[in-house]
Amino acid sequence: KLGFRVLDRVAPWGDASVPGAPRLRFDLLAGARYWYNSADVELNVPGTGLGRHVDESRDWADAIVGARVGVGITRTVNVSVIGDVGGFDIASSSELTWMVMPSINWRPWDRVSFHVGYKHLEAERERPSTNNDFDYTMSGPVLGVGFHF
């Protein structure tokens, strides 16, 4: 995703005269999410020598649009929420995909930050002509390290 910062100002509880005061930020995002789905199944019937092996894979990309909101709590700590929606059933894309990820971010040094959050991602893709349906849901904790240049 690429973003464009729409809002960047000192938070109401921050002191504008202090360098690094907590800030409010709002970014608009756009980009693509690439999917690769693979299944490799082997079935053997013991004692008969009968079996079958199936190896299938599909891939596609979804156009997505979204936003990120960041709220500074202190000079080095902020909370943010990133969300996006996409697919839009364009060509071979998903009918709908969406993601939301709230996080707490700590930037103790100018060039390094640490992130703890929770991500929820869903996608729905149906292709009746090929009997290729895909419904996906993933949720779980996220840990990250950011390097700033």
Please describe the topology of this protein.
Blueprint: E1 2-10, E2 23-45, E3 50-72, E4 77-87, E5 96-106, E6 112-125, E7 134-147
What is the rounded distance between the termini? Answer: 18 Å
The structure class reads mainly beta
Main β sheet profile: 7 strands, antiparallel
Helix % is under 10%
Please tell me how large the radius of gyration is.
22 Å
Number of helices: 0
Instruction: Provide the low-confidence segments as ranges.
Output: none
Strand content: over 45%
Task: Give the strand line-up of the largest sheet.
Answer: 1-2-3-4-5-6-7
Overall spatial form:
elongated
- Strand segment tally: 7
Averaged pLDDT: 91
Please provide the ordered H/E string of secondary-structure elements.
Answer: EEEEEEE
Describe what you observe in this structure.
With 149 residues, the chain is an all-beta fold. Helices cover 0% and strands 70% of the residues. The chain contains no helices and seven strands. It has strands spanning 2-10, 23-45, 50-72, 77-87, 96-106, 112-125, 134-147. The protein has a seven-stranded antiparallel beta sheet, with no helix packed on it. The mean pLDDT is 91.
